[in-house]
Design a protein that fits this description.
The complex is a heterodimer of chains A (332) and B (278). With 332 residues, chain A is of the alpha/beta class. Chain A has 13 helices and 18 strands. The longest helix of chain A is centred in the C-terminal third of the chain and has 16 residues. The two termini of chain A are 32 Å apart. Chain B has 2 domains: 203 residues, Nucleoside phosphorylase domain (Rossmann fold, 3-Layer(aba) Sandwich), CATH 3.40.50; 58 residues, no CATH class. Chain B is built from 10 helices and 9 strands. In chain B, α8 runs parallel beside α10. The chains are: A alpha/beta (332), B alpha/beta (278). Chains A and B meet through α2, α8 and α12 of A and α6 and α8 of B.
């Protein structure tokens, strides 16, 4: 539910803005000079805003496409991400977005054409090289689709470049644009997954794991390439059993041929953000666990991290060839 | 249990009179810089600041220093405002969603509280009374200055500005007097009730979030904790409650006799605990 709509004056008459406004006929927008007049101000309460988020329609001025951290990838050596949106509809306790901004409002950058130019520039520069673009780094790629039309716009664009892959990272089960299209061979629909017992406690407002698996199964049977993202791996009593059950459940329901890649990543928070995140969620089970400072990140101990990683890899080997496994070490 | 707190900031006594009566507030005794009212439970406070930006800024600071819950209170600037003829009718209340100032470029966009059934409008604050009714917004002499000072002290989601149109033509301004204001506001209090309820609930959320653990004072009064040890204790106490909701800590540490042994005990208990997700 959107509480209020703010629109940057510069894009007041942008066709995408006009079409979004038609979906919120009862809202009277407030026109602002720049999104920073509302977003990420001092003395804002992320938790209250998360209950009553506003939508800010803005124009991204620069930095359309950025390089991913060095260990972030699914096989190609050239990896970039782009964020048409900041913040997410869901409210996951391990998400770094809680510490990134003091606002929980959604910013949607409507100038997709500029992102497209930025992406084209990278593709042209890396001609004949394999490149992966990631969306869903600062937001969920599909959860806001009914409003943003992001996937409907970008999939036909990416379809034209055979040396390029696009990963749509999501927890959403709103797959309308994908279900209406023929599968796009260079698009990977990547789902974040964790055991139901944990997701029920940590993934607030997000679809249940059962619903996510059902949706993956549907897409896989249609021929879409699927990414499985077990990231973050979360520890606790009985963790081995619940991960075993999760993997069994996933692979029982999904056509293995559809799996493009499997990523494992440890639980990690940037050191600078952890205190802020903890302050906002003092009653979080996840954050009250034993987490230690390692370099510039807060995470489980090295022993726990390695044990979880190797246990999960061993299990996954039963279902899938190791060549599909990628690890995200989680350095910031 | 604290259910939150509201701090009202109002320029004129005649604007405040009905609120004071309806919300059962009484004048704080003693020699105060501004007239301050509060209710019996001390969870609703009101300051009458006088007209103008300097007065409102001083009044806010004064109430902030007096009210024990000021940091987690919901702050409301309430009062009358002039408006352009087309903005609304006399007596119509507005929740302000944009605050401008005649002299300063800084614009504020207050947090919009959902489902209040109050119309939203822009308010511009001037240094002098205005009589240009061709404008498309509300105008007053306090709103911007109120927000400007309060947002420096507390979280922005706990601040609201509500104005009722008192004049929208040169003729209507002539009818504003004490009796008119008193009756005029009395009739509009019902519009403030949902905002007030919402304010209490948000303030309560903020109070809960910021409150110290009930054992913290007991433990730190009994034993000497350095600053860093007390920070560690705060963190451990919260984690204890999350991880061991059925284990009262006090009985487990009652025989320990210094800060270090208490911290060591809690830390080792937390370390040996494995989270249960089921």
């Amino acid at each position: 539910m959107i509480n209020q709509i703010y629109i940057e004056n510069e894009i007041k008459y942008h066709p995408r803005v006009q079409s979004i406004l038609k979906k919120f006929k009862r809202k009277t927008p407030i026109y602002i000079d720049k999104y920073a007049s509302v977003f990420n101000k001092k003395n804002q309460n992320f938790r209250i805003q998360k209950k009553y988020p506003s939508l800010i329609l803005a124009k991204k001025k620069s930095g359309y496409v950025l390089k991913t951290p060095p260990d972030f990838g699914i096989g190609n050596s050239n990896n970039f991400y782009f964020s048409h949106m900041y913040n997410c509809l869901y409210d996951c306790e391990y998400c770094f977005l809680q510490g990134m901004y003091s606002s929980a409002d959604y910013i949607l950058f409507v100038n997709y054409e500029d992102f497209e130019d930025g992406i084209k520039e990278k593709i042209n520069f890396l001609k004949n090289e394999k490149v992966t673009f990631f969306s869903g780094y600062d937001c969920d790629s599909l959860a806001f689709e009914k409003i943003s039309g992001f996937v409907s716009y970008f999939l036909p664009f990416f379809k034209k470049f055979s040396n390029v892959e696009i990963e749509l990272r999501t927890k959403s089960t709103q797959m309308d644009p994908l279900l209406k299209l023929e599968p796009v061979s260079n698009c990977i629909v990547a789902f974040s997954l964790l055991p139901t017992e944990i997701a029920d406690k940590t993934d607030h407002k997000a679809p249940t794991i059962k619903k996510r698996i059902n949706k993956i199964s549907e897409l896989a049977s249609m021929g879409w390439k699927i990414g499985l993202r077990f990231d973050p791996l979360i520890h606790g009593e009985n963790w081995k059993n619940i991960y075993k059950e999760l993997f069994a459940d996933v692979f029982k329901n999904i056509d293995k041929k559809a799996i493009h890649s499997i990523t494992l990543g440890p639980l990690r928070f940037p050191k600078a953000m952890f205190k802020k995140i903890l302050g906002m969620n003092p009653n979080s089970k996840l954050l009250s666990d034993v987490l230690v400072l390692r370099g510039n990140k807060i995470s489980y101990t090295n022993e726990i991290e390695l044990e979880m990683q190797s246990f999960c890899i061993d299990l996954l080997k039963k279902y899938s060839p190791e060549t599909l496994f990628f690890s995200c070490k989680g350095n910031f | 249990m604290n259910n939150g707190c509201i701090c009202w900031v109002i320029a004129l006594a005649s604007e405040a009179k009905s609120l004071i009566k309806d919300f059962k507030m009484y004048l704080m005794p003693g020699d105060t810089l501004f007239p301050i009212y509060k209710n019996k439970n001390e969870n609703e406070w009101l300051v009458i600041t006088g007209v103008g930006q300097l007065n409102v800024a001083s009044g806010v600071s004064y109430l902030y220093s007096l009210c024990p819950y000021s940091k987690t209170s919901f702050w409301i600037n309430f009062g009358i405002a002039g408006a352009g003829k087309n903005v609304g009718d006399i007596g119509e209340p507005f929740l302000i969603n944009e605050l401008r100032h005649h002299d300063f470029k800084k614009i504020y966009y207050p947090f919009i509280l959902p489902n209040l059934k109050l119309k939203n409008a822009m308010l511009k604050t001037y240094n002098k009374p205005q009589n240009n009714y061709k404008r498309s917004f509300l105008f007053d002499m306090e709103g911007w200055a109120f927000y400007n000072i309060v947002q420096k002290k507390i979280t922005r989601e706990l601040i609201a500005v509500v104005k009722i149109i008192s004049d929208n033509s040169p003729e209507t301004i002539l009818s504003i007097n004490k009796n008119f204001l008193n009756k005029f506001i009395k009739d509009k209090i019902e519009y403030l009730m949902p905002l007030r309820d919402f304010g209490f609930s948000l303030s309560n959320l903020e109070t809960e979030r910021k409150k110290e653990h009930f054992l913290f004072v007991d433990i730190t009064e009994k034993f000497h904790f350095t600053f860093s040890q007390s920070q560690q204790l705060k963190n451990f106490l919260i984690r204890w409650d999350v991880n061991f909701p059925k284990r009262p800590l006090f009985s487990e540490i009652k025989d320990l006799n210094d800060a270090k042994s208490i911290l060591d005990y809690i830390e080792s208990s937390l370390k040996n605990h494995k989270l249960k997700w089921e």
